[in-house]
Amino acid sequence: MMSNSHAIHAEPLRLTRELKAPRQLVFEAWTQPEHLQNWMFPKQGFACEYVSVDIRAGGSSLHKMTTPSGYEMWLLTQYEVVSPPDRLVFRQYSSNTAGEIVPNTQISNWPPEIRATVTLEEVGDKTKLAFIWEPINPTAEEAEAFEAARDQHGQGWGGGLNQLELYLGNVSKQ
Q1: Tell me, what's the pLDDT at 7?
Q2: What is the architecture of the domain spanning 13-173?
Q3: pTM as predicted
Q4: N vs C: which end of the chain shows fewer Cβ within 10 Å?
């Protein structure tokens, strides 16, 4: 950690989507590995593999995202709130293959702990999704790194939500 150990506020990344799918299906897409592995990546060419899954309040999951170039990124997710069909809150960490939390090697001073909040609201036959991604108690350096990578991570999560929309369109047709 850096010498500045005082946590500061970092502006969260906020994304919204209106999805042409029932809220229950959207919730299942966020909480069932058979769905998650089909969309939890920013664009085609990436792969996502869940190696352990316990999606419930107090549970965790471990997954590997592989880029088209073959780089593997491991992520540990710890679930705080799993409230079907409208709310999911989890913390995400860079990890190794054993699920041990490790520093992010791709971005210097990256916040070690980030909370995601997903809320789902029924709007007719569609679902309004709101996504908030925010570092937990970042140092000034970590908040700066989060802000500097905002566009990159906005594209990552935004791309993931685009993949979710495509996936839900295919699942709804089946």
Answers
A1: 66
A2: 2-Layer Sandwich (3.30)
A3: 0.91
A4: C
